[in-house]
Amino acid sequence: MAAEEVTLSSHIQHHLTNAKMCSTDTGLAFNKACADSGFWTWHIDTLAWSIGLGLVFLWIFRSAASKSTTGVPGKFQCFIEMIVESVGDNVRDTYHGNSKLIAPLALTIFVWVFLMNLMDLIPVDFLPAFAGFVGESAFGMDSHDVYMKIVPTTDINLTAALAIGVFILMIGYSIKMKGIGGFIAELTLHPFSSNNKMVQILLIPFNLLLETIALVTKPFSLALRLFGNLYAGELIFILIGAVGLMQLPLHFIWACLHLLVIWLQAFVFMMLTVVYLSMASSNNSH
């Protein structure tokens, strides 16, 4: 794309497009060549940033654990302990089952999602422009054909993958705590029930439909809430970046407001995960 062809619309689209990799009949292809590749298209920027930030999370907490002391803790140890204790308190107040997995899972979700959301505060043109420069100078590519979307949670594929993981845990905990028979009974004998066996049998299709919808909407809500809030925030940053010199004070104001969104969305995702797993672990979630 030549410089004179760049419009506000194409600029926004460029910043909101993932770097793609796919397999074709002629070998590996990238970006625009993957337009018709179907389901098996890898968003390599989402994968790279999410995995990299996951490793950063592990390194930070591993470093804090290896340097921890029973004496007077340093500021770094105090900060990490505050996060761990805060997550632990929320899990104890919310999860009413008995599982050693829930607290570490909640901590991982909160910190990992927070780090991915935090990428939204990096200036929107910085890393995409750098990626375009590398692609142009090292590989002879047109810089406008090089994409770099650095906020993994603005990719619905990433948020859906996280939500599917939670959904699998929900099903697993339901079966573990209630057995297969109890899980099936929960889907077919609620919310409508009757002491009359014939009426109870007639109500099974309606109960199954309602309970299946209620079950499936939980991961959908997790995925769409996180994606929608972060995608909207990134879009506003991009629009602010197009106003010229006035973008600096506007960026600062929106970044300050967005700090709350970044933290809150990570916290909400964590808490809803714990709530859903608590419901799955309950003998009677109705």
TrEMBL record:
Cite a single GO BP annotation: proton motive force-driven plasma membrane ATP synthesis
| InterPro entries registered for this protein in UniProt | ATP_syn_F0_a_bact/chloroplast, ATP_synth_F0_asu, ATP_synth_F0_asu_AS, F0_ATP_A_sf
Record localization: Cell membrane; Membrane
What function is annotated for this protein?
A: Key component of the proton channel; it plays a direct role in the translocation of protons across the membrane.
Q: Name one Pfam family in it.
A: ATP-synt_A
* Entry's Gene Ontology cellular component terms: plasma membrane; proton-transporting ATP synthase complex
Family designation = Belongs to the ATPase A chain family.
Q: Which residues cross the membrane?
A: 40-61, 101-119, 156-175, 222-245, 252-277
What is the protein named?
A: ATP synthase subunit a
Where is this chain primarily localised? Answer: membrane
Q: Which SUPFAM superfamilies would you find in this protein's record?
A: F1F0 ATP synthase subunit A
The membrane topology of this protein is: Multi-pass membrane protein
